[in-house]
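Example pasted here:
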Amino acid sequence: FDGVDLNRNSSFQWNSCFGCSSGEVCDQTYRGRAPASEPETKALESYLRALFADARPPEPDAAATETTAGLLLSLHSYGEYVLYPWGWTSSPAPNAAALQTLGRKLGYYTRYNACQIGAPGCFYQTDGSIEDWVYGELGIPGYTIEMGNWFFEPCATYEAGLAGAT
């Protein structure tokens, strides 16, 4: 693998948990040399800051307001999961119940398992991820949807799914 895993490069909780990302350049989960070191990460964080008002107090355990507007969906492969913050810890995020409720609704329509990324029995922990960043910095609910059954899903799989969605 070449390059930085952009979903380990966000500036929120970058390199904050052991084994959640790698400092080795050739590893699949290479987090980059510094938080938001990549131009794509900087551009995305800047764009989201311009698009959404900050709705979360600065204290790490403070919840976002219930009137927070916005939603971020990050599509990945693979695994059939709807994942929500936090990924860098097994502790629930301040708005855990609301994040779980919306995650389950998204999971209902996709038939995917909805769970907190870093929670036991869900998915492996991640740090520096975009869904943690958008929630941790702005209070916007962020979700990663792990689509499909293979890292490189054949196009025919999606075409067959689209044909049945008429």
The chain has a mean pLDDT of 90.
